[in-house]
Every structure is written in structure tokens, then in C-alpha cells.
Design a protein that fits this description.
four-stranded antiparallel sheet, alpha/beta, Rossmann fold, six-stranded mixed sheet, 10 strands, single chain
């Protein structure tokens, strides 16, 4: 990823080598009819503090990439290189023993704010769990840190002892972000992190992600189907279709002058309110139907 100018409100990426680099990534799934190649030779890189968006329609392989980056699945081939004090390490080929101490460096915010949180746990316990894994032994210290993280994502102290069912979708997604931040990650992979939310709440979560990036220099890989959403957060965009990259470049350039017909179709869909994913507020529905 090249050092593209930062968007207003976003952090300026540091000049230097990439923090995360993916080379010739291939992911295949076994089916009754043989192997299906979900991701076919994908490559990209992201500098520290940068944001790369991966966009495309459902089934194009973008969520498979997200899961491969955080090793929720093992790539068939290729490299996922994460830079650090010990040099560049290939997460794709590591066994679980070697991977365990590195997992905290690259975390994920999931698409479903309703299904990604344990309904039996309080918000404080959900956020404190990674702290325990990180070695924070004293319960009081974990509770204090969890309260600070929830405050950081804009939730009040009264939220600490409430369970997921007591929160709205946007609030649950904020808890998911706080849980990811508890591991002190350098890279945050957001897999359709706003698509299940009301369009108005999407804007709030995107603003939060930009604020966190500006404050702490987080590096993002942002998975989305919607070019209108990635416009708000990303420096560069990778457009995928059927497991392959069809276009890649600075977000502003790709959105203003897309080279590929497929990208132009995605851009047109992003501008049409009838194609919006997620729950839509009434004013958007009225606009889509041509109501005054």
C-alpha cells in the first residue's frame, strides 16, 4: 500500500515498510463436488496507521480473507506477513503454539453485533476476558481497565453490568470494538462491522473507528460490500470479484474514476438508497420510495 494522503479526521499513515503484507493468498474449501477456490492469489499491503478496504459483493471472498488474516482458518497457500520486533513473521504457516502469543497483535470486529457476544456475560466480563488472557490477574484491575475501554468507545459506566440483550445493535458493536481493543492490537480487521446496523448508527461507528485510528495509530483492514461506507474510513481500496482482485488503488481515485465495469456497478449501487444493506431509518426508506 502506498502512502496515500490521509482523509480528514483519519490518521496519517507512517512512511515506511508495510506492517501487514499478504502475498499470493489462496484459500480453498472442500465440497461434495470437489475443491472450491474462494480466494485466488490475492495480495496487498498496509502501512502502520493505514486503512485498506476490501470490497465486493457477497461470496467474492472478502470475509474469507478476513478470517485468514486472523487465522480463524488456515490458508491453502500464500503468506500473511506481520512486521514486528522479531522481524516479519508469516502467520499463515504458524502452528497454534507459535501463533498464540501473536494473536493479540491482530484482532477482529465481527459483522453480527447480536451473535458475536456471549449473552450470559456482562459487558464488563466480555471486555475483561482478553485482559485475563493478556496476563492481568487481579479482578479489580481487569474491571477498571474494562470500564476505561467501554468509556473509550462511548458507553457509560452504567453499561458495565448489563448483558448484550439490554443493548442496541450499535452499542453491542461498540462492546465488540472494546473487546478487540483490550488485546492492544496493532491491526484491527473489521468484517462488515457496520452492515447490520441502522444507516444512521453506521455513521457513528465509522466516526468511532476513525477517532480510534487517529488517537492510537491503529491499522485497519476494513471488509465491506459498500463503497459509500469505505469512502469514510479507507486510504486504499481493493475490489474483489469471484475470489480475485479486479481493481486496487487509492480510495479517492477508485471512487472518482473506476477503471473496471464491476467497480462502476458497485459505485452506482452505493449511491442508490434502495440498495443499502442493514436496517434503514424511515427517512432513507421514504427517499428510496420517492416520498416527499
Amino acid at each position: 500500500m502506498s502512502g496515500a494522503p490521509a482523509k480528514p479526521g483519519a490518521a496519517a499513515p507512517e512512511v515506511g515498510g508495510p506492517l501487514l503484507e499478504v502475498r499470493d493468498l489462496v484459500v480453498e474449501y472442500a465440497t461434495a463436488n470437489g475443491k472450491v477456490r474462494a480466494v485466488d492469489g490475492v495480495g496487498f499491503s498496509v502501512v502502520k496507521g493505514g486503512c485498506l478496504a476490501v470490497v465486493g459483493e457477497s461470496g467474492c471472498g472478502k470475509s474469507t480473507i478476513a478470517r485468514a488474516l486472523v487465522r480463524l482458518l488456515t490458508p491453502t497457500s500464500g503468506e500473511v506477513l506481520l512486521d514486528g520486533p522479531a522481524g516479519r513473521q508469516d502467520l499463515a504457516r504458524m502452528n497454534e503454539r507459535r501463533l498464540r502469543p501473536i494473536r493479540s497483535r491482530i484482532q477482529m470486529v465481527f459483522q453480527d453485533p447480536y451473535g458475536s457476544l456471549d449473552p450470559r456475560m456482562t459487558a464488563a466480563d466480555i471486555v475483561a476476558e482478553p485482559l485475563k488472557l493478556r496476563g492481568v490477574r487481579a479482578k479489580a484491575d481487569r474491571e477498571r481497565a474494562a470500564a476505561d475501554l467501554l468509556d473509550r468507545v462511548g458507553l457509560p459506566s452504567s453499561a458495565l453490568q448489563r448483558r448484550p440483550a439490554e443493548f442496541s445493535g450499535g452499542q453491542r458493536q461498540r462492546i465488540g470494538i472494546a473487546r478487540a481493543l483490550a488485546s492492544r492490537p496493532e491491526v484491527l480487521v473489521c468484517d462488515e462491522a457496520t452492515s447490520a446496523l441502522d444507516v444512521s448508527v453506521q455513521a457513528q461507528v465509522l466516526a468511532l473507528l476513525n477517532e480510534l485510528r487517529r488517537e492510537s495509530g491503529l491499522t485497519y483492514v476494513f471488509i465491506s460490500h459498500n463503497l459509500g461506507v469505505v469512502r469514510e474510513v479507507s486510504d486504499e481500496v481493493l475490489v474483489m470479484r469471484a475470489g480475485r482482485v479486479v481493481e486496487h488503488g487509492p480510495t479517492a481515485t477508485v471512487l472518482a474514476s473506476p477503471r473496471e465495469p464491476y467497480t462502476r456497478a458497485l459505485r452506482a449501487a452505493a449511491l442508490d438508497p434502495t440498495t443499502m444493506r442493514g436496517r434503514k431509518p424511515r427517512d432513507v426508506l421514504a427517499t428510496a420510495k420517492g416520498a416527499p
